[in-house]
Design goal:
This protein has 495 residues and is of the alpha+beta class. 28% of the residues lie in helices and 28% in strands. The protein is globular. Bound molecules: glycyl-adenosine-5'-phosphate. Glycyl-adenosine-5'-phosphate binds next to β12, β17, β20 and α9.
Length: 495
């Protein structure tokens, strides 16, 4: 099985309503994306499962939902005004803006003098094979001189209030983390927490990326799922400083979560930041990389931010941001372990990993083997014959009943084979088929066997289940019980 290319996935996402380009009818907005009917369900499921596993099920975590617009001083204290920059260069000819540190990582356009100025596109970082020249001009147009590098701040500026003046400048938050730091004392006072404990938040972040790209991997508006886990730096756990112990615990927990949600462990690896890669606030950072179509790239980061942020906000606000250690009778500025994941990158990884093409009876089948908890639609109710009113009525009735607990869809717009394929392609784990045997023939006084067929997505196996037992069967199937165990209790139906 080869992983899908990004083009294949982008096409599926558009065709089936997962992701659309933002403002497409106007030609699109640079690197912003809209999530369609299936995309919004998948996205909500990722966030719901993450929140349940990392916030609601843990005794040492609480949640928060801070506003996107914050006091402008927040961004001076955090270092974003001074440090949240990328070096960029401009082409004097085509006016294209590029990241200075990435110019040699893209193929470059070259008008080769050895071939009377013919145009070639040369692979990234390589010299021209004809004249031996290396890139000096703009890699995009091949003609323009590049300006010297300048630092470009990635924060989006806006104005608060009715007057567009310098004093009213504020920013769209580039990370959700700062909303947690500035609320540290509010949460501490209102919940009476003891260290170690964490505050989690899911929300939008905005970055004016110079070179966004790779579909939803790097966009200008995206969503983060972040945790700031506060630990006592004076404490030892298992013979190690508490921050180092918890950092390793969080790296393991995050990796395990992605695998439990369906990612292939062979497609995940850890990347330890070298000294010159570390952010200005970090003692140590480890990224979880996923093998995306463009290569191993960051899925999420887990950083040890030390006491940098709390100390900075204490300094700039004049408020004490400490925790009082009753045992040692001392005020402590906690260290912070920060697992920070992007919702959009997680969604992209889950889709890529789930995508499979296979041959079934001579036909190509595309199937998204999404974890059932993430699948946008859990059950599809499909009538075998839409001309029979009893079949259609039973189908609608079943959909309404099942939809009270699970996202359930009714579809009668094609023949059954095609309906199954459609559901496979969007990752629906179970289809329920209503057929002639279910309802019988009322004209002959038959009531049918009141059983329906359940088809499982990955194996395509089918079982025949009494309608009355459907809810209990799906409670098990969409809970903890595996298909083979449930299926063993029912007669097989022919596929
Ligand atoms: N608070 C720490 C922080 O924001 P980061 O490594 O800049 O760290 C964390 O971002 C995560 O947010 C990344 O691992 C990625 O999943 C996601 N992310 C960052 N920039 C993004 C972008 N432009 N588009 C989509 N996701 C992004």
């Amino acid at each position: 099985m080869t992983a899908p290319s990004m083009d294949v996935l982008v096409s599926l996402c558009k065709r089936r309503g997962f992701v659309f380009q933002s403002s497409e009818i106007y030609g699109g907005t640079g690197s912003c994306w809209d999530y369609g009917p299936l995309g919004v369900e998948l996205r909500n499921n990722i966030k719901r499962v993450w929140w349940r596993d990392f916030v609601q099920q843990r005794a040492d975590m609480v949640g928060l939902d801070a506003s996107i617009l914050m006091h402008p001083t927040v961004w001076r204290a955090s270092g974003h005004v001074d440090h949240f920059t990328d070096p960029m260069v401009d082409c004097r000819e085509c006016r294209r803006r590029l990241r200075a540190d990435q110019i040699d990582a893209v193929p470059w356009v070259h008008y080769c003098e050895a071939t009377k100025g013919n145009k070639f596109t040369i692979p990234a970082g390589e010299p021209c094979g004809r004249c031996g020249a290396r890139r000096t001009l703009c890699p995009e147009c091949g003609r323009g001189q590049l300006t010297p590098p300048r630092q470009f701040n990635l924060m989006f500026k806006t104005f608060m209030g009715p007057v567009e003046e310098d004093a009213a400048v504020t920013y769209l938050r580039p990370e959700t983390a700062q909303g947690i730091f500035v609320n540290f004392d509010n949460v501490l006072q209102s919940t009476r927490r003891k260290l170690p404990f964490g505050i989690a938040q899911i929300g939008k972040a905005f970055r004016n990326e110079i070179t966004p790209g790779n579909f939803i991997f790097r966009s200008r508006e995206f969503e983060q799922m972040e945790i700031e886990f506060f630990v006592n730096p004076n404490e030892m756990v298992d013979g190690r400083p508490a921050d180092e112990h918890w950092h390793d615990r969080w790296i393991a927990d995050c990796q395990a979560w992605f695998i439990r949600c369906g990612l292939d462990p062979a497609q995940i690896r850890l990347h330890e930041h070298a000294g010159d890669e570390l952010a200005h606030y970090a003692k140590r950072t480890v990224d979880l990389l996923y093998r995306f179509p463009m290569g191993w790239s960051e899925l999420m980061g887990i950083a040890n931010r030390t006491d940098f942020d709390l100390k900075q906000h204490a300094k700039f606000s004049g408020k004490s941001l400490t925790w009082f250690d009753e045992e040692r009778k001392e005020h402590v500025v906690p260290f912070v372990i920060e697992p920070s994941a992007g919702v959009d990158r997680a969604l992209l990884a889950f889709l890529l990993d789930a995508y499979h093409e296979e041959e079934v009876r001579g036909d190509k089948r595309v199937v998204l083997r999404l974890h059932p908890e993430l699948a946008p639609i859990k059950i599809a109710v499909l009538p075998l014959l839409k001309k029979r009113p009893e079949i259609v009525a039973t189908g609608h009735e079943l959909r309404a009943r099942l939809a009270r607990r699970w996202v359930t869809l009714y579809d009668d717009t094609a023949a059954i084979g095609r309906l199954y394929r459609r559901q496979d392609e969007v990752g629906t784990p179970y289809c329920v088929t209503v057929d002639v045997k279910t309802v019988g023939d009322p004209d002959k006084g038959e009531t049918g066997d009141q059983r329906v067929t359940i088809r499982e997505r990955d194996t395509m196996e089918q079982i025949r289940v009494p309608i009355d037992e459907l809810e209990s069967v799906f409670t098990r199937l969409l809970g903890e019980t595996a298909w083979p165990e449930v299926a063993a209790a029912y007669p097989r139906a022919e596929s």
